[in-house]
Input
Amino acid sequence: MQILNKWLLVVLLAVSSTVFAADLKTAKAQGWIGEQQDGFLGLVKADAPADVKALLAEVNGQRKSHFAQIASKTNVTPAQAAQVFAKEAAERTEPGNYLQDAGGNWVRK
Output
């Protein structure tokens, strides 16, 4: 049952994260933002344009909401839901885009 819950979580989060796919994809490809280990996006470059920062805040807000929804439906904590998503997001990250390593440093995939 836990495995089914985790896959349900991954599928729901993957579908919901495509709302801003084009803008998000561009911002990632340009190296402004990357996937953090906690399931949220982070700024790779502090001097990112305001629209990129706004996109990051909006997507992270949506992710937080989805993590809470999935957690309540699957009997896990929001942090656990976010961790499952973070692993899947890292796997889906395009080569050349940024991921956060265990030490909090940004590295290219």
